[in-house]
Design brief:
heterodimer, A: 332 residues, mainly alpha, B: 210 residues, 10 helices, elongated
Chain lengths: 332, 210
Amino acid sequence: MEYLSIVFEEVYKILFLLVPVLVSVAMIVWLDRRVWAFVQKRQGPNVVGPFGLLQSLADALKYIFKEMIIPSSSNKVIFILAPIVTMTLALIAWAVIPFSATQVLADINVGILYLFAVSSLGVYGIIMGGWASNSKYPFLGAIRSAAQMVSYEVSIGVIIINVLLCVGSLNLNDIVLAQQSMWFVIPLFPMFVIFFISALAETNRPPFDLPEAEAELVAGYQTEYSGMMYAMFWLGEYANILLMCAMGAILFLGGWLSPLAFYPFTLIPGAIWLIFKILLLFFLFALVKAIVPRYRYDQLMRLGWKVFLPFSLIWVVLTASYLFYFNLLPVN
Amino acid sequence: MIAHSIFFYTFSLIAIVSAIMVTASKNTVHSVFFLILDFISISCLFIMIGAEFLGMIMLIVYVGAVAVLFLFVVMMLNVAQQKNQWFAAKDSSKHIPVGLIISTLIFVEIIIVISGWKYKPEIFDINNSLTQPSVSNTHSLGQILYTDYIHVFQISGMILLVAMIGAIVLTFRQRAGVKRQSYIKQISRERSDGVEVLEVQTNKGVRIDD
C-alpha cells in the first residue's frame, strides 16, 4: 500500500506537469501562426473561438479523425515508433525544469546534463521516421537533420560549459540561484545570442528548417506521415521548442527569479516569471521565423562548425581565465 | 529495496536481451537500434548505482553522437547485403577461431576484475572514502581527474586529437576544378564591378559577353 500511494502521488505530479505543457504547446502553435501572420500583414487563425484561440484544438480533432496511412513498403515497427519517440523525449525533459525553488518534479544533481542528453536523443525520432518511410525525400531530410542537430549540439554543449563555469554545479536550481545578483545574459551576452541561434537550428526552426524545406524535400521526414502520427511529430517539435526556450530562460534569464526583486513583485510566484520568460523567448523564435529567409545547407554547416564552435571555445577560455584571475571561481 | 531490485532486473534484462538482438537480428539497422537500446539501459544502470554523471555522459557521447554515426554508416553503405554475402560464403568458418580467441580474452579479463573485487575487499573501502554524501558525483570525479590523474587525462585527450586530425588528413583530398564560393569576394563586390551603363546606338546593338 505504501508503494501504491507513492506511485499515485508521482503520477499525480507528472499529470499536473504534462497536461499544462501539452495545452501550452497547443496554444503556442496558435501564437506562432498569429505572430507569423501579423508580420506579413495577415490575420492568421482568427475564426475558431475568441481570437482563434481554439484553432489548435480544431486541428487536433481533425488529425484524430483522419486515417493513419502506413506505406506498404515501410518498416512498420520503426515507422510507428518514430513519432512516439519524438513526443516522449520532448515530454520527459520537462521533469527537471524548476518552476520555483521547490516546484520541480526531479531535482537531480546533473539536471543540465539530463536536458542536454534528452535533447541530443531527439535526433532519433527524425532518423527513424526518415529511414522507415523508405522513400527518398524523407531519407534526405532525415540525413540533413541528423547532421544539423549533431553539429549544433556541439556549440550548445560549449555554451553550457560557459554557464557552468560561473555556477559550479550541474543542478538547474543552483544555476538559477547563482543568477540572483546578475542574470548571465549580461556577462555572457554573446553566448546568449549564439545559444538562441543554435536553439533555432537544434529544433529545426526557420531559418534552419532544411530538414523539411518544402521547396526541395516536400516535408522532409514527415512526408509519409498522416493523421495522429503527424500530429505527434508536430506536438513533439513544438514541445522541444518550448523546452529550448525554457533552457534559455534558465541558463541566461534567471529562470524563476523575479526581475524586480522588491516587495509587490516578490508576491508573484516564480512559475509565472518562468512562463513569462519562456513566452518572451518564443516570441523571438516566432519573429525570426517570419523575417529571415532559409539558409543554404553548406552555409548552415559553415556557421555551426567554423563560426559558432571556435567563438564559443574562445569564450570558454576567456570566462575561465577571467574567473581564475579575479579569484571568482565557484569552489566549495 | 523491492522497487530498486525491480528496476535493476528490468534494466539488466533489457540490456542483455538487446545485446543478444544486436548480433541476432537480420536487419543491420535494427541491430544499431538494439545497440542504442543497450546503451540506454546500461546508462540507466549507471544512474541506479549512483554514478549519475557517467550515466549522462554515456547517453550524450554514445547514444547522442557515436550511435548516430553508426546509423549513418549502416544506412548509407549497404552493409546488410555485404553481411549476407559474408555469411553465405563457405570460408565464413575462418572467422570463428579469431572471434573465439577475442571473446575468451574479454571473458578472462572480466573474471580477473571480478575476482580482484572478491579477494581484495579494501578496494570497496577506497571507493567509499572518496564518495562522501555531501560531495556530488561530478565533483569527486573532477577532483580525481584534474589532480592525481591530470597527465593521463591530458594524454588521452591528445591521443583523441591526434586520431581526429589523422582521420581528417587521411580522408581529405583536394579535387581540381571545383567551384568554391569565397564569402569575402561575394561581400566585397561593388556596383561598379557588376553593372555598366552603356549608350546604345540605334541599329548597332552592344556586345555583352566579353
